[in-house]
Design brief:
Elements lengths: L16 E5 L3 H12 L3 E6 L2 H14 L4 E6 L5 H14 L5 E4 L18 H22 L5 E5 L23 H26 L4 E5 L4 E2 L2 H4 L6 H8 L5 E2 H4 L1 H8 L8 E6 L4 E6 L9 H15 L3 H6 L16
Parallel strand pairs: 1-2, 1-4, 2-3, 4-5, 5-6, 6-9, 7-8
Antiparallel strand pairs: 9-10
Helix pairs in contact: 1-2, 3-4, 4-5, 4-10, 5-10
Length: 326
């Protein structure tokens, strides 16, 4: 792969329909770069005001950009399903899905609308369900790619705790966040394996931004928490969000990016720099755990990837139509 890859190396995205979750930080940088490159970009997030602002900011920077906002709350599986249905009814295909949005280390245990621990439910399970709902459109995409964001934090003592998956017995903010991001990484790798086995034609890739200057630590722990104060006072230790977005952009657009791989920054122990292959922790390579997590996730999210893929057999130009088994 090319060293010191930047946005200038991004190929044209004309003719590609792209969904990015998250209205600020890395998600905004992703959407802006992809829209500038000619993509038809859908910014998906739960806050309409922030979504409208992201669209307006993109338009100011790139007046000819094709960019729109669609509401979806990843912490509410009904909202995720409704979003998927709207796109299946209004779009012919999706070429790129970037599973980016996240919450990070709320000091007290919170739950999603469906009762899941907030970080596991939002960062991982919401994106797992979203990918399943959009799978019929992705299968019809042109060289479709799914990029799922993990975190540099998974390098330390990461594990999937099936005995307390929702941290109901013992909640600690950072271990819960790390578990959610390890699950994201394992999902990206397992999705590639399942696509290869089933012939879906997807390229599934994981990425992480290193340590980047986003609002994650301000939004969840709080601006005046220890983490939030470190983010504010030691801002110079965090690379700009646009730089942190580069591994995602490389994974989403470069012809050199490979399915089943993991990309992150190349310098200072993957904390900053340009896109390069990242180290996959041993925990993410456990195939037994990956399959178990997938099966558990399908039950929790009430989705089935096989059933979603089958809808393409009778799909029309504006929606999935009649399922194959009907």
């Amino acid at each position: 792969m090319r060293r010191n890859w930047t946005i200038q190396d991004m190929p044209s995205q004309h003719g590609r329909t792209i969904v990015v979750t998250g209205t600020g930080g890395l998600g905004f940088e992703d959407a802006l770069a992809l829209a500038r490159a000619g993509g038809d970009v859908i910014i998906a997030g739960r806050n309409p005001r922030k979504g409208s602002d992201a669209v307006a900011r993109t338009k100011r920077s790139a007046p000819d950009a094709s960019v729109s906002f669609e509401p979806v709350d990843l912490a509410d599986l009904a909202s995720v399903a409704a979003f998927g249905l709207r796109l299946c009814e209004s779009r012919e295909r999706i070429d790129t899905l970037i599973n980016n949005a996240a919450v990070m280390t709320p000091p007290r245990r919170q739950t999603t609308a469906d009762g899941f621990e907030l970080q596991f439910g939002t960062n991982y399970l919401g994106h797992f369900a979203l990918t399943a709902h959009l799978l019929p459109l992705l299968i019809r995409g042109r060289n479709p790619r799914v990029v799922t964001l993990s975190s540099i934090a998974v390098r330390r003592n990461a594990a999937i705790n099936f005995d307390d998956l929702q941290a109901a017995k013992a909640y600690q903010p950072m271990p819960a966040y790390v578990q959610s991001k390890l699950a994201c990484l394992m999902f990206a790798l397992e999705l590639q394996r399942r696509s290869d086995e089933a012939g879906w034609g997807l390229t599934s890739i994981a990425a992480h931004p290193g340590i980047s200057r986003t609002d994650l630590l301000h939004n969840a722990p709080g601006r005046y928490s220890v983490q939030g104060l470190l983010r504010s006072v030691l801002w110079f230790l965090f690379q700009p969000a646009a730089q942190g977005a580069l591994p995602t952009m490389f994974a989403a657009t470069s012809p050199d990016a490979r399915g089943g791989r993991y990309y992150g920054p190349d310098k200072l122990s993957e904390t900053r720099g340009h896109p390069s292959e990242a180290t996959i922790p041993a925990a993410a390579l456990d195939l037994h755990v990956a399959r178990r997590l997938w099966d558990v996730s399908e039950k929790l999210a009430d989705v089935g990837f096989g059933a979603a893929a089958a809808t393409r057999l009778h799909a029309g130009p504006k929606g999935p139509g009649i399922p194959a088994e009907a």
